[in-house]
Specification:
The protein is mainly beta and about 110 residues long. The protein contains one helix and seven strands; from the N terminus they run βββββββα.
């Protein structure tokens, strides 16, 4: 579930796409394996998730977001309980899915 209205991060963040902070349930799919996670922030390029299981860096998975759909992804980093994933789908496709589910200001690219 969303924790209030998403707030776009500003300041020293020099990412290519604007990130939106939120709390939203999701799952990583690896074939038949399902790993529950929570999205902490998201953009049209990727997301930071809370995850209790270890996944291999550079592993390709599908992020299945409740109410949004599935996005092809690659794990780019992982710490104790968080991981960063990069979306493999085109940013315009990701933006379209996020806009349809959460409105046009959620993950403006």
């Amino acid at each position: 579930m969303l924790a209030g209205r998403p707030a776009i991060q500003t300041g020293g963040d020099r990412r290519r796409y604007k990130r939106v902070r939120l709390l939203h349930s999701a799952a990583l799919r690896d074939g038949g394996r399902l790993i529950d996670c929570v999205i902490r922030d998201i953009s049209t390029g990727g997301a930071r998730i809370l995850i209790e299981e270890r996944v291999a860096k550079q592993q390709e998975l599908v992020l299945d977001i409740d109410g949004v759909g599935r996005l092809n992804s690659r794990v780019v980093w992982q710490s104790a309980d968080q991981a960063g994933i990069r979306f493999l789908d085109e940013p315009v496709t990701v933006k379209s899915q996020l806009d349809a589910a959460w409105g046009p200001d959620t993950a403006a690219g």
